[in-house]
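Here is the promised in-class demo. Please do not try to memorize the tokens; focus on the logic of going from shape to residues.
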């Protein structure tokens, strides 16, 4: 039993998958945190482009 627990503790198979999942989770959290700022900036850019087009078309 002691040998089984020792082998189980030292087994690193599957460790990479956990690390990749944690990294993907951190990227997702960062993306969600950046969305409000990005959406405001993108909205401002499109509003400016729209006003320039309207001013030049009329």
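The designed amino acids, position by position:
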């Amino acid at each position: 039993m002691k040998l089984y627990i020792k082998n189980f503790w030292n087994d690193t198979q599957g460790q990479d998958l956990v690390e990749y999942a944690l990294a993907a989770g951190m990227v997702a959290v960062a993306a969600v945190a950046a969305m409000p700022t990005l959406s405001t900036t993108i909205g401002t850019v499109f509003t400016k482009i729209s006003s320039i087009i309207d001013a030049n078309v009329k």
